[in-house]
Design a protein that fits this description.
The strands form seven sheets. Strands 3, 4, 5, 6, 7, 10, 13, 14, 17 and 18 form a ten-stranded mixed sheet that branches. Strands 21-20-19-24 form a four-stranded antiparallel sheet. By secondary structure, the chain is an alpha/beta fold.
C-alpha cells in the first residue's frame, strides 16, 4: 500500500504546477510474500490458442503458448490473438502471457523510476511484483491499447482507450478530425465528438451557399470508422456523435440512424446477409452503423417536456431562432427512433456540468463512445478494470482491504502512463498532461451480487454496489492526493481548487447518505471512512488527477479476466448457447448459480437438482426446492424463452442511479427492454433516468435490430423480423396483389393455401380452403386464416407465429406429399412450416423442421412441377375482397 509519507526523497521532473516533489511513494508487499516473484505463485502450462469460424475454418492458431493453468481456453485464445505482438511465426512473436505482462509492467516500472514516483528501488520492485500478481491472477487488466502498444519496440506508446475530440466550424477542422479519429482507431482507441459547433443545413456560408450541416459530415466520419479496424485487429472502431437539442439539425440527427435501419430491413428482405460484420451485407451497405448517437439535453428542455412547452432551435452563427417545436414532439421523435434502432441515447447536460471538477478550465461537451468518460474536449483517458469476483472471500463476503490495496497499485500504474504515453494531437497531449484524467473501474458486478445471494434489482444489491463503487473512487482520489504530495497537483488544480473540492464533498455526502443493513454495514462504513480520508488528503495536498473512475464495458479485457459479467451489467441469461466448430451449439450454464444457491442456504443435493433443472429447461423458474422469494436473485437482462422473469427496465436504471454519485465520470450501461416494449415505456425510462440524476442513458429493445449476436435458447437463436410497424397500425394490401396458391395433403386430407403478398413479396394475408371437410372444420380454418391475416397486417413478425404454431399436434396428422415437410403433426403445423419455407431465411426454416431444398423455387426448371404451386412468374391476381378477406 502507498503510504501518506515517505522517508526517502525521490528525484523527478518538474510538475505542471511548478512544484518539485520532496518524497516518493512507499509500497509494501501485500499480495505477494517478501522477496518472491509473482510468477512463482502461479502454475503454468502450454496450450494451443485457436479461433475458428462458425464453419470450422481456422482464423487464428498459435501452438505452444505458455499460460497460467487457471486461465480458461477462451481467455487464452483472446489474449494470444489480440494482444501478442510480433508477426505470427516469426522470432519476434510473443509466446507467453509472461511476456506481455512483463512488457507492460517493466515499461511502467522504468517510467515510474525515471519520474520519481517511488521512494526507493525496493518500493519500485515491490510495486512491480504486486502489479504483476494482480494481472497474472486476473484481478485486474489495463485497457486494450496498453496491451496493443506499451513496451512494443517502434510502436507509438498510446495507452488510452477513450478520447474526446473537438471540432471547429471550418472545413480544415472538419477534415482534421477525420485524420485524428483514423489514427485513434488504428491504435485501438475510441473517440467521441459533439458536432454542435458546426453550422446547420439551414444556415448560410460566409462565401455564399448553404452549409452542409453536421449530419452530412457524419456520413463521411462513419465511413472512415467502418474502414479502419481498431488496433490493427478485427475489433470494430468505436465512435460517439453528439448533437445538442437546440441545434437546428437536431430532428435530422434524431431520425438519421432509424431511417438507415429501415433501409437495412429492406435489404435483408431482398436477400442481403443479415450479419452485422459481413462485408457487403445489409448493415455494411447502410450509413451510421459505426457510431453511437446521443442528444445532449438540458434541464430546461426536460422541464419543457414535463410542462408541455415549446422548444426553440438556434442558429450557430448569430443565435437567431430557426425552428420552434413542441418539446414533447422532439421527445417522442427521440423515443420513436430509439424504439427502432436503440439510438439516440441521451446525455443530461445540466447534471454533467454540476459534477464538473474543472469548470474554470472548460465545460464538458462530449463523452467517449460508451459514455463512461465524460470530460473536456481534447482529452484522453486510460482505463483499468478490477475483477470484483477476485475480492470475494471463501465465506462469501467482500474483502475491502484487499480491494483498497489493489486500487493503490493499479491507480499508480495508470498515473505513470499519463506523462509517458503518446497522444494523437498536441491539444490532447497538452490537456492530458494538465488534467491527468484516469478511468479506474470494475467488472463482474452482476456475478458478485448473484454469488452473494443478492438480487441485481433490489435495495440491498444497489446498496452494496454503491458502497463498493464509493470505496473504489474514494480510495483512488486518496491515492491521487498522495501522489500530489509526491509529484504535485495537476496543473489546472489551483484555479479549480474550490469547484473540485465542492464535487469531492458531493461524493463524500453521498457516501454518508448510504443506508446500512447487517449484510452491508462493513462495506458502507468502509465507504464513508474512505471518503473522509480522500477529502481530508485532498484539502491538504490537492489532487494529482482531475478524474479517477469510470465504469467501462470491459469487453475484450473482461474475457481476458474470465469475467462472467461485464462492467456494471447483470448476466444476460442463466443459459446461453455458443456455436461450435463444424456446427452445433454448446450450452453454457451460469457458473455463479451454485455459489448463490449455497449462500441462500440450499444443501448440496438441492443445489445439484436445481442446476440440473436449469440445464434441462433453460430457466430456473419451476426448479425443485427453490423458494419463490429467491427467484429474483437469478433474474437476468433477458427473459428466457421458457420463463417469464427478467430484470425490469427500471431495475437497470435504479442500479445506475445507485452508483452514479460515486463515479467521477459515468458508466457504459445499456438499459435492456423486452421486444414488446412500447415507445411510451422508452419515454418513461428516459424521464426517470433524468429524475434519478444519471449523466447518460442508452436503451436497447430486444430484437429491434435484425442482426443480434446473443443466443439465449436453442429454439430462438436470434430475432428475425419481417416488416414491423412500430405502433399498432394496420398495413393493408393493395386492391390488386400477387399471391401464391399451394395444394397440400396431410394424411389424405386435401386443402389449398393462398397467401396474398405485399409489393415487397412478404405475406400479408392467408386463406385456407379444405377440400372435403365439413362446415365446422372449414369455418374454424377460415377463422384461423382471418386471424393470421390480421396479425400479419398489424406487424406481428411471421417468425413469431412460426415459432408458436409449428409442431402443434392434433388430428389430422401424418404423411404429406411435400418433400420439404414429409410429416405434419397437424394442418396448422403444416401451414406454418410451409410459410417458413417460403418467407423466412433457410436457417429459420430449418429450425421449424423444413428439409432444405437442393434447388430453390426461383431455380426450378420449366415445365410440369411435382407440386401445384405456381412459379413466381405465374403468380395470379385474386379478388380484393373474397368471402373471408381482410
Amino acid at each position: 500500500m502507498a503510504k501518506n509519507v515517505a522517508d526517502v526523497a525521490g528525484e523527478a521532473r518538474r510538475n505542471g504546477n511548478g512544484h518539485r516533489p520532496k518524497v516518493g511513494l512507499r509500497f509494501e508487499r501485500y499480495f505477494t510474500p517478501p522477496d518472491s516473484h509473482a510468477y512463482d505463485l502461479v502454475e503454468w502450462e502450454r496450450r494451443t490458442a485457436a479461433i475458428t469460424s462458425e464453419k470450422g475454418q481456422v482464423i487464428f492458431e498459435q501452438k505452444d503458448v505458455e499460460v497460467p493453468r487457471s486461465w480458461s481456453q477462451l481467455a487464452i485464445n483472446v489474449v494470444a490473438q489480440k494482444y501478442f505482438r510480433g508477426s505470427p511465426g516469426s522470432q519476434e512473436r510473443e509466446t507467453s502471457v509472461r511476456q506481455i505482462i512483463d512488457r507492460v509492467v517493466e515499461t511502467l516500472t522504468r517510467w515510474g523510476r525515471e519520474g520519481g514516483y517511488f521512494a526507493t528501488d525496493e518500493d519500485a520492485d515491490n510495486w512491480s511484483e504486486e502489479l504483476r500478481f494482480l494481472l497474472v491472477t486476473q484481478h485486474a487488466s489495463f485497457n486494450s491499447p496498453v496491451w496493443f502498444n506499451i513496451g512494443v519496440p517502434g510502436r507509438q506508446q498510446q495507452g488510452s482507450a477513450c478520447f474526446i475530440n473537438s471540432v471547429q466550424d471550418s472545413m480544415e477542422s472538419i477534415l482534421d478530425l477525420v485524420k485524428t479519429e483514423g489514427m485513434l482507431f488504428k491504435f485501438g482507441s475510441g473517440t467521441g465528438t459533439n458536432l454542435s459547433v458546426l453550422r446547420s443545413s439551414k444556415e448560410q456560408l460566409s462565401g455564399g451557399g448553404t452549409a452542409s450541416g453536421p449530419v452530412s459530415f457524419m456520413r463521411g466520419y462513419d465511413s472512415f470508422a467502418g474502414s479502419i479496424k481498431s488496433g490493427g485487429t478485427t475489433r470494430r472502431a468505436a465512435k460517439m456523435v453528439i448533437l445538442n437539442a437546440d441545434h437546428p439539425d437536431v430532428l435530422d440527427f434524431i431520425r438519421c440512424k432509424a431511417e438507415e435501419e429501415k433501409k437495412a430491413w429492406a435489404l435483408i428482405e431482398a436477400g442481403y446477409n443479415v450479419g452485422f460484420n459481413v462485408p457487403g451485407g445489409a448493415y455494411d451497405s447502410v450509413q451510421f452503423q459505426n457510431a453511437n448517437h446521443s442528444v445532449r439535453i438540458t434541464d430546461t428542455f426536460m422541464n419543457a417536456v414535463a410542462d408541455d412547452k415549446t422548444w426553440e432551435t438556434h442558429a450557430i452563427v448569430g443565435g437567431r431562432t430557426i425552428d420552434t417545436y413542441k418539446a414533447r414532439t422532439l421527445w417522442r421523435e427521440i423515443a420513436d427512433a430509439a424504439w427502432i434502432c436503440g439510438d439516440p441515447g441521451l446525455q443530461f447536460d445540466t447534471t454533467i456540468q454540476d459534477w464538473n471538477v474543472v469548470p474554470n478550465t472548460g465545460r464538458i461537451n462530449a463523452t467517449n463512445p460508451c459514455s463512461e468518460f465524460v470530460f473536456l474536449d481534447d482529452t484522453a483517458c486510460n482505463l483499468l478494470s478490477l475483477n470484483l469476483m477476485k475480492f470475494q472471500t471463501e465465506g462469501g463476503t467482500f474483502d475491502v482491504e484487499r480491494f483498497r490495496r489493489a486500487v493503490d497499485v493499479c491507480f499508480t500504474g495508470q498515473e505513470i502512463l499519463v506523462s509517458n504515453a503518446s497522444y494523437p494531437t498536441p491539444a490532447i497531449a497538452k490537456n492530458s498532461e494538465a488534467l491527468r484524467p484516469l478511468g479506474l473501474g470494475y467488472a463482474n458486478l452482476g456475478a458478485l451480487l448473484m454469488s452473494m445471494g443478492l438480487a441485481y434489482d433490489s435495495e440491498e444489491g444497489r446498496r452494496f454496489a454503491g458502497a463498493i463503487t464509493s470505496i473504489m473512487t474514494g480510495r483512488a482520489f486518496a491515492q491521487s492526493a498522495r501522489m500530489a504530495q509526491v509529484k504535485g497537483t495537476f496543473s489546472e488544480f489551483p484555479k479549480n481548487r474550490e469547484p473540485m473540492l465542492r464535487v469531492m464533498e458531493k461524493h463524500r455526502a453521498a457516501a454518508h447518505e448510504l443506508t446500512t443493513s447487517p449484510e452491508s454495514a462493513d462495506v458502507v462504513t468502509a465507504a464513508q471512512k474512505t471518503w473522509d480520508d480522500a477529502v481530508a488528503l485532498g484539502r491538504t495536498h490537492g489532487y494529482r488527477n482531475a478524474q479517477a473512475t469510470v465504469l467501462a464495458p470491459t469487453g475484450t479485457i473482461g474475457l481476458m479476466m474470465d469475467c462472467d459479467t461485464t462492467g456494471i451489467e447483470p448476466d444476460l441469461a442463466l443459459v446461453k448457447y455458443k456455436k461450435l466448430v463444424g456446427g452445433g451449439l454448446l450450452k453454457i450454464v451460469n457458473n455463479t448459480v451454485p455459489a448463490a444457491l449455497r449462500k441462500l442456504g440450499y444443501d448440496s443435493a438441492e443445489v445439484k437438482e436445481i442446476v440440473e433443472f436449469i440445464d434441462d429447461n433453460d430457466t430456473i423458474e419451476g426448479a425443485p426446492h427453490l423458494a419463490d422469494e429467491h427467484l429474483k436473485v437469478f433474474d437476468c437482462a433477458f427473459k428466457p424463452v421458457k420463463g417469464s422473469r427478467s430484470i425490469a427496465p427500471m431495475g437497470h436504471v435504479r442500479m445506475m442511479a445507485a452508483v452514479q454519485p460515486f463515479i467521477s465520470g459515468s458508466m457504459s450501461k445499456t438499459v435492456n427492454l423486452p421486444t414488446e416494449a412500447t415507445v411510451e415505456e422508452i419515454e418513461q425510462t428516459y424521464m426517470e433516468s433524468w429524475k434519478l440524476g444519471l449523466k447518460c442513458i442508452a436503451i436497447y429493445r430486444d430484437g429491434c435490430k435484425r442482426s443480434q449476436p446473443l443466443s439465449t435458447s436453442l429454439e430462438k437463436k436470434k430475432e428475425e423480423a419481417t416488416e414491423v410497424e412500430f405502433r399498432a397500425v394496420r398495413r393493408k394490401l393493395p386492391d390488386e396483389r400477387r399471391s401464391i396458391t399451394h395444394k397440400f395433403d396431410v394424411a389424405g386430407h386435401e386443402g389449398y393455401l393462398t397467401v396474398g403478398l405485399y409489393e415487397d413479396g412478404q405475406p400479408g394475408e392467408l386463406f385456407v380452403t379444405m377440400a372435403k371437410e365439413g362446415s365446422t372444420i372449414s369455418g374454424l380454418m377460415d377463422a384461423f386464416a382471418t386471424q393470421t391475416s390480421y396479425a400479419l397486417q398489424f406487424g406481428v413478425p411471421l417468425k413469431f407465429m412460426v415459432d408458436k404454431f409449428t409442431h402443434m399436434r392434433f388430428e389430422p396428422s401424418g404423411f404429406t406429399k411435400n418433400k420439404e415437410i414429409p410429416i405434419a403433426k397437424s394442418i396448422v403445423d403444416y401451414i406454418f412450416r410451409w410459410m417458413a419455407s417460403h418467407f423466412l431465411p433457410a436457417e429459420d426454416a430449418e429450425e421449424a423442421g423444413v428439409i432444405r431444398r437442393e434447388v430453390t423455387v426461383e431455380a426450378a426448371p420449366a415445365g410440369p412441377a411435382p407440386a401445384p404451386s405456381p412459379a413466381p412468374a405465374e403468380l395470379r391476381v385474386i379478388a380484393a375482397k373474397p368471402a373471408n378477406g381482410v
